[in-house]
Amino acid sequence: MDRNLMADILEQVADFLEKGEYRKKVRVGITTLGSEHGTEEIIRGAELAQKLYDDVEVVLIGAKGNSSLHCYEAETLEGCHCLMEELLDKHEIDACVTMHYNFPLGVSTVGRLITPAKGKEILLATTTGTAAADRVEAMVKNAVYGNIVAKALGIKEPTVGILNVDGARQVERVLNQLKERGYPIKFAQSLREDGGVVMRGNDLLAASCDVMVTDTLTGNLLVKILSAFTTGGDYESIGFGYGPGIGEGYDRIIMILSRASGAPVAANAIKFAADLVKGNLKEVARAEFEMLNRIGWKDLLSKKEKAPAAELQEVKMPDPKPVAEEISGIDVLELEDMVKLLWSHGIYAESGMGCTGPVIRVSEEDLEEAMKLLQEAMQ
Asked: Mind listing the pLDDT tens digit for each residue in 4-13?
């Protein structure tokens, strides 16, 4: 019999005799090949996790090094991934931590970070993978994926904020429509004076929300910065890594590290994986997607907003006039189309960029009519 397995059995017997209860350990694998810091760095993270978390059994996949941890040996990272998938599907491990892994379209990862302003945790949705080919659809799904992970971590009503990036206002509208249909999403408020669900960089640093929604490329950049800002960038030392791949019908708990992730992040990623197993991530995700399908979220996502660009290509600009009023809340992806929409109604307008994002500038006398037209166009 395997010595590690025998030790685990004896420990469980001791627990039962001491506490009168059976405590099954969560079994988390970690692939050891492919790190820019070498195999020993990942093994060090695995051993650190095993030392710190007595309810977790850590197993290695790849090279064993000098470790006493159980190892399923493989010679390449691709071999590690094949073995990892086999072990997950056979339920020989409950979750796995790896790097440089390609998820199918529709699956993206929710990172878990410690923010520098107040030392609070925040989930960043998402950090790798692609939830959808369309930007807005992907970010709406990212919000759902972040909600799922937060609930699996025990946050009953996670607060959701949308980072102020291209598409944020469109994402806000779709999420509000989902909420009107019955999806229980709780919006955060920015710590800045003007508030709102659209978050600034200040909100990210201070963790103003439980789940920060963004596009994956921006999320990937942010997780790298917040993980390595104390080390000069080549060694990620803070946080829990890039998180689990989430998507409808996806049934494996696979956690992602960067090849720049150091031992502390590897250890935290193992804890993150164990937390999600104990929080029944798969069941939480299944229930969430069932609810969304009942309220027709796919129909809502498939309805492409009809931007007026094609109809307004030849619109003539009205005679210029002084513009002193600003209308905010317009997405940058729709900005020029909304300006032309106002032109088509005889209202002179200019696009601009304020401190909170894109704005449309109009005269004071046109403000009320312009706001009415824009609100109607964006419904």
From this structure: 555 555 665 5
State which amino acid sits at residue 355. Answer: C
Which among 45, 15, 19 is positioned nearest to 273, based on CA atoms? 45
The torsion angles phi and psi of 250, rounded to 5 degrees, stand at -85, 125
Catalytic-labelled residue, pool 82, 96, 209, 355: 355
Amino acid 125: pLDDT: 98
What is the domain partition of the chain in residue ranges?
Answer: 3-99, 107-244+280-302, 325-377
Residues 71, 79: Cα–Cα separation, whole Å: 14
Give me 61's structure tokens.
């996949």
Cα–Cα distance, 54 to 66 (Å, whole number): 21
Across the chain, mean pLDDT equals: 90
pTM of the prediction? 0.83
How far apart, in whole angstroms, are the C-alpha atoms of residue 215 and residue 143? 10
209 is catalytic: no
Decide if domain 3-99 falls under CATH 3.40.50: yes
Question: What is the dotted CATH code of the domain comprising 325-377?
Answer: 3.30.70.1530
Structure tokens belonging to residue 309 = 């660009």
Buried b (16+ CB within 10 A) or exposed e, 152-179: bbebeebbbbbbbbbbbbbbbbbbebbe
153 near 145, Cβ under 8 Å?
no
